[in-house]
Amino acid sequence: MSNTQVLIVGAGPTGLVLALNLARHGVSFRIIDKNSGPGQASRAMVVHARTLEFYRQLGFGDEVVSLGIPMEAVHFREGNEEVAKLDFKDNGAGLSPYPFALCFPQDDHERFLVAKLAEASVAIEWNTELKEFIDDGSHVQATLEKDGSEETVQADYLCGCDGARSRVRQTLGFDFPGGTYDQDFYVADVKVANGENRDLIINVGSHTFVLMLPVHSTGMQRLIGIVPPELAGQTNVTFEQIQPSAEKMIDTTVEQVHWFSTYHVHHRVASHFRAGRIFIAGDAGHIHSPAGGQGMNTGIGDAVNLSWKLAHVLQGRIDPSVLDTYEEERIKFARTLVATTDRAFEAMVGEGVGSQIFRTWLLPHVLPFLTGFSAVRQTMFSAVSQTRINYHGSALSQGHAGDLQGGDRLPWTPAPATDNFAPLSALDWQIHIYGAPTPDLRAAASDLGLPIQEFPWTDAAEHAGLEKDAFYLVRPDGYVALASAHQDIEPLKAYAAKFAFQP
Known about the structure:
The chain has 13 helices and 24 strands.
């Protein structure tokens, strides 16, 4: 029997990011996948700002950007006409180091993450399947199968990142409530006549939907859409059958098809994300409509949230009760997100009066008007980019100072004066002060082994909602754990005592 601290089942984006973070934290783990290698085709295309911020902490945010295409505008079409164009280049200027949405297809994305693991001397165990497991209270014993041979592994924790048909979730018996959209969907990578397109093009109508966006590595375009009603339910649908409709809706000519597939879209959230020493993350816990490109990014957020908690518990740096906050923090967001994207998608493609008003009036007329205001653009960016995610109400979230409270993402203050995201690369606890710390706070932080990051008070800090001379205890994932407007050290000491906190 072999031993490891964490067994990760599934080497998609969620499992890969979990592995990369555990590696940075010095945790031993194994990562297995029943497939023979990274995916060769994918539906997830968009990497949002919050994911890029996490990647910056790992040291490769800018590298990912260089491999993708920042989207600058979205063109809305209905029928044969463009009804609205929204420019969203740098909509998040001042809010994030990455004020855009990035086109970076999941297959390229996975290969990139696999390469980063290889740089960390981590080998993924491909063609290896989880057969069964049991949590005995002190460890998890799992049976793996590869090439007809079985192996028993003992792990402190098991993480199921094994997709929508998750064996881990099914074995745990978690319900997976939600539904399946009536429509059949298709996805294809194609070469089009106007192949220089760098924007997002969407055509929506009653039970009609197609979007096109660029694929950087191949010079092709990704098409995602609803199979026309006359073909719905048929088996072996070909792109040639769909092509006339798709070309008309996006006003272009398809010259070459790289790959094509049809599929069904679900919207579901598992009843739990944890049972004892076993966790689920990513598609194993939640699946989404295509609206907003949220699914993959949400799974990566799961991995980031879980990784530091597992690492610090395994290293004896924090009380094991902190692991309870993984489900507490992530399932609430997943449920809200699935409900929101479901409503948005139904509004776009539904047959009701509300959907018709949305397509014929709100999209072409009201939305372009509203996005003329910078506050509206920034609000839209915050919602879609996942920079607005917070963990209010979590056991780990306490206090408030300025516009911030415990559980908020630490707001970004831009370089060169105060790039306050730079120290987050430590992936560890730290105190941020925009002003000067008191001697008492310096002493308390020193006793706790907490580094203090001091930044000058600037207009950017004030605009971000920070308060001068307040202190913010920041978690390893960049969220505010504790905020104190008056540098009161007693809440800091109580926080450390409550969670057996040892930075």
